[in-house]
Amino acid sequence: MDRHIPFDTLHNFRDLGGYRTADGLRVRPGRLYRADSLGKLTKDTPDWNRFLSLSVGTVIDLRHPWEADTRGRVPADPSFTYHNLSIEHRPYDQAALTPDVDPGPYLAERYLEVAEDGTKEIATALELIARAQGPLTFHCASGKDRTGQLAALVLSLLNIPDETIIFDFTLTELATPALLSDWRARHEGRSPTWPAFGRAPASVMRLFLKSLRARHGSVESYVTQALGLNAAALSASLRAHLLEPAPTTGPPPAFRRATPAEAPLLVRLRDTAALWQLAHDIDQWKPGEKDEAHFLHRMREGEIWLSHTDASPTGAYELWWDDPAAWGPRPPDAGYIHRLMTTPHTAPPGTGRTLLTHAESRITATGRPYARLDCLSSNPRLRTYYESAGYRVVGEQQAKKDGLGSPYAVTLLEKRLS
Question: What is the pLDDT of residue 402?
């Protein structure tokens, strides 16, 4: 499932459902949404009908009143209540910042200001979310900073791990090109002077959470001492309304061979997986490294398979018939599995292993006796995962090249297929 719900005018509207708590529950899908400005919605349009179909009963607008006045607010409708709670008291112009400004420490410090200035509004927003009996949406302008900060507080009070909170924050990166396009359209085609405008690097949320805890001791202490709320009672109410048991199994996925028309989907799947890695401090994939041309080439030279569960994409992998960059010249005795990826937090349990099994079946169908793959030598966690699936280490390639930068070391793994 792609967390971004498709709209024509909204670029960063997403469902917080599916995130898992440290104690085995998950956020109920379809109950809590975060978004960019709903002021871009217009009545009697497909976007408006799509929004109403979500049965949202409460909208929280985190922008300044003057933003709602000049840029528009969500159209009034009897199906929901509207609350304008401006949590940011010291406006700042990100677009005008100079290129030397590091987004990590700069934005984390702004978020701390918001946390100290907007206590009354943040407390009200948290109470509204805790009391909501149906779906609720909160938003700011781009759905990144103020929205990201409130999302972080809610998810933390639900006992969601920091890595997941950071990942959720970085998903704005998938919307950055569209948000930039909108900004340029409003400013006669000019571009922001700050290269980080519209970006949501993991370092921002990681630093904010660390700084908030350094100043207050914990998120719960901040809620109690700065917001004047009973953190334990608030957390219990949020959990009662928003959590459900996490499924331990899921329906078997359906597989189909990817088509050229699905190259954009594959780019998005990979970029999402890359953001998950960065949120977990894994230095391997980076967003934007593989474009549509890469996946179209791999379709011509080998195979790419997509898995779907209930019509939603849950993962993909590439299957190559040779891999000289990692393995050197070899006889045609193996298939080479690359870019095994699942949709973080939404793929059913065991999807990665199911993808591996499917890839191995494709290799077996060609009569080749081996499945091979490689992983970064600096990623022992991934190596352990493949070893648990029956792969054994057979060597190291100290200088693999893929045309994207400097050579890097990889561990070579192989599995004999029956």
Answer: 67
Which domains are delineated in the chain? 14-245 (3.90.190.10), 254-416 (3.40.630.30)
C-alpha to C-alpha distance for 219 and 228, rounded to whole angstroms: 13
Which own/partner contact pairs does 175-179 have at CB distance under 8 Å and 24+ positions apart?
Answer: 175/4, 175/11, 175/12, 175/36, 175/142, 175/143, 176/200, 178/11, 179/11, 179/12, 179/36, 179/142, 179/144
157, 175 Cβ separation under 8 angstroms: no
- What digits encode the pLDDT tens for the residues 88-121? 999 999 999 999 999 999 999 999 999 999 999 9
Yes or no: say if 335 and 362 are a contact pair by the CB < 8 Å rule. yes
CA distance 52 to 76: 11
Under 8 Å between Cβ of 60 and 147: no
Q: What is the pLDDT of residues 225-252, one digit of tens each?
A: 999 999 999 999 999 999 999 888 778 8
Sorted by sequence, the CB contacts under 8 Å of residue 78 that are 6+ apart come out as none
In sequence order, the 6+-apart residues with CB closer than 8 A to the CB of 322 are 330, 332, 336
Confidence at residue 404, expressed as pLDDT on a 0 to 100 scale: 59
The pTM for the full model equals 0.93
| Under 8 Å between Cβ of 51 and 135 | no
Q: Is 91 helix (H, G, I), strand (E, B) or coil?
A: coil
Low-confidence ranges of the chain (pLDDT < 50): none
Q: Are strands 334-342 and 312-320 parallel, antiparallel or unpaired?
A: antiparallel
Give kind and range of the element (H or E) at residue 129. Answer: helix 119-131
The pLDDT of residue 170 is: 97
